[in-house]
Amino acid sequence: MRSDTIKLGDARAPHRSLLRATGVGEDDFRKPFIAICNSYTDIIPGHVHLNKVGEYVKECVRAAGGVPFVFNTIGVDDGIAMGHSGMKFSLPSRELIADSVETMIQAHCFDGMICIPNCDKIVPGMLMAAVRCNIPTIFVSGGPMEAGRTPDGKKVDLIDVFIGAAAKQDGKLSDEELLALEQAGCPTCGSCSGMFTANSMNCLCEALGMALPGNGTIVATSAERKRLYRRAAERIVQMVLEYEEKGDGHGLLPREIVTAESVDNAMVLDMAMGGSTNTVLHMLAVAREAEI
Fold first, then answer.
1. Mean pLDDT for the chain overall
2. pLDDT of 227-243, one tens digit each?
3. What is the pLDDT of residue 249?
4. pLDDT tens per residue, range 148-187
5. pLDDT tens digit string along 70-128?
6. Is the distance from CB of 191 to CB of 144 less than 8 angstroms?
7. What is the reported pLDDT for 232?
8. Which superfamily is assigned to 31-144+191-289 in CATH?
9. Which of 64, 80, 120 has its CA nearest to residue 97?
């Protein structure tokens, strides 16, 4: 296993001693080390619940026979960053995320990785890193937000709040009506309702072959989403073991999954579902990392 680099042999006694301090047991040194690449932060609604998601995925990886280790990336909420100088930091954050994930994976010789992104630049940043590192990897997002309802029962989402803000400036909406939209537009955790970059990229992860079915569509608050977390955790351990058993350097690795054909499939899906045009920018970056 790749992780044998840091856990086998007399010369690695210091490494094992450090790992023991984190709770690694004697039997764990014979199991695959699985990185859980999380992106929890409590300023982004799509990520505010990912601390709990990460802990659950960690439990599931352990139950499946892997040794889980959680780390986090940064995250920028484009909806909060837009309209001021903060938006200048949005796209650069994608590169920071890709670099930081690559750093963690290569420095600690993980055997496999499960990525838990959700919002706009986090998904492509992790995809870029996955293709760079080329170890068994699976994506499972935090899921989309539910739609909201105004007091009069109208179904709304963040798009309606944007439209409402413009309507208020034009004098077509009262203060009370805008406030009602604001309070109802984002009712739960999850990536913003609507075919923005986050939901589009989470769907494209399925078309690419990097995520299980439902990754982009099962809402964050659904019990089915929790079952998806468990299936993803079980699958990444299986993928690592299958790769090791095969032993020829080939298998379900990101560079063998992310091909010209799968990128084409992803873009066809994006057009068919009316997804974000930002996916062009991100898929070009992912394709470049894959040397397509």
1. 97
2. 999 999 999 999 999 99
3. 83
4. 999 889 999 999 999 999 999 999 999 999 999 999 999 9
5. 999 999 999 999 999 999 999 999 999 999 999 999 999 999 999 999 999 999 999 99
6. yes
7. 99
8. Response regulator (3.40.50.2300)
9. 120
Separation CA 18–CA 27 (nearest Å): 15
Give the tokens for residue 278. 């930002």
Can you read off the two tokens belonging to residue 42?
């409590």
Whole-number Å distance between alpha carbons of 209 and 63: 24
Enclosing H/E stretch for 165 = helix 158-169
Pairing relationship of beta strands 155-156 and 148-149 according to DSSP bridges: antiparallel
CA distance 241 to 114: 14
Domain boundaries along the sequence of the chain: 31-144+191-289, 147-187
From its phi and psi, is residue 247 left (phi > 0), alpha (psi between -120 and 50) or beta?
A: left
User: How far is residue 135 from each of residues 19, 73, 240, 252, measured CA to CA in Å?
Assistant: 21, 18, 8, 9
What is residue 247's predicted lDDT score, i.e. its pLDDT? 84
- Whole-Å CA distances, 189 to 21, 83, 121, 176: 34, 23, 18, 24
Distance of CA 165 to the CA centre of its chain: 30
Distance separating alpha carbons of residues 215 and 232, to the nearest angstrom? 10
Assign 138 a pLDDT band (cuts: 50, 70, 90).
Answer: very high
Half-sphere exposure (CA, 13 Å, Cβ side) for 39? 34
Distance in angstroms (rounded) separating the CA atoms of residues 185 and 156: 6
d(CA 13, CA 255): 33
Q: At 253, is the secondary structure helix, strand, or coil?
A: coil
